[in-house]
Amino acid sequence: MQKIIGSAFIAAILFVPALAMARTTYATPQVACVSSYPVVSLGNAGRFSVSSNVAGPFMWTTGDYGVVDAGPVFVAPMTTLGEQQITVVWGSTRASCFVQVVPTPGYGEPYSYSPYNSYPGYVGDGPNIAVSSVFYPFLPDTGFAPQTLAAFAFAFVLLLGAGIALYPYARKAFTIVTR
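Now predict its structure.
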């Protein structure tokens, strides 16, 4: 039994670094926000899209609210005069768009008011929210999640080795506790 475990551990030590060196290059995620309308009338909506080398999902934030998993296109009503900032976030990468909100009609997209909207100080049908049953993030957001299969395999082998090394101590502790 010990020979089999030792052989598997030696094989993992030899092959995991080879897999890590053979991995493909990881492109740095790039996110840019593009505004369709640089000037938007008060009460109308601005249309924003993301230009990125990642597929998403993206989080969009305005001064009033944030929308998770909204997709690459976001339509937001403008409810305050002046310069407004809309930010798109993917992971830890973010980009911002700025639009000028003016009282003059005719700029941006028309945004109708819905009586079903119950948010105070908010005009329009609401943000384009994609409701799903998926919980984000899947793993704890420690910033050190394995990015490749090789890194995941190395982490698994490392945990397996730690478990094998600590097994006698855990067994003794369990025996003492159960007596």
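Residues 117 and 125 are 6 Å apart (CA to CA).
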